[in-house]
Amino acid sequence: MNLMKSKIDARQRELRGRLWPDITDDDLWVRQNSKGFATIPRTMPLMMSVMDQMSKTKPVSSAYFELFCRGFDDCMIVLNKPKEMAFHAGFDGQRGERTWRERLKILEQLGFIRLKEGPSGAMSYALILNPYHVIKAQYGKHFGITSESYNALLARVAEIGAKDLDERALPEKEPALPKKKKASK
Q1: What is the pTM of this model?
Q2: Cβ distance 63 to 107 under 8 Å?
């Protein structure tokens, strides 16, 4: 596998050198030479599009991406900087933090994250669930997911060799959506 990857890398570098002969690695943002990178699934843009379809007129993908980029392999994020996180997700001004919290609630309602209370209030911690599982469980039930988008996701998953949507890779049960809190009178 490494031999195949190195051959592909060599061909890409050769083509890049021919197309842009004046550009060196110093001109590029190469993750092996820089710090602060996260591993991002190749299907992330498509999944973010599906999330926005599901959330209708209140796009949630920038909030999800902000969470994702702050997370590590344990998939848990401490939400102790809401103003900063809201700003990084593109929500600023007087309503920035409120919009951030609203988008987090929508992400939780859709099943993409779980929230827990703690020292920073009702939203102190977030846990990112596998979005493949959430989308698969919601497809056909949630009118926001178009068959065009779902089929494109299936095709992209097959193209990159991801196994998250395979039946044997799915959890035994559907991802449980958080229980709705009863409205206080």
Answers
A1: 0.83
A2: yes
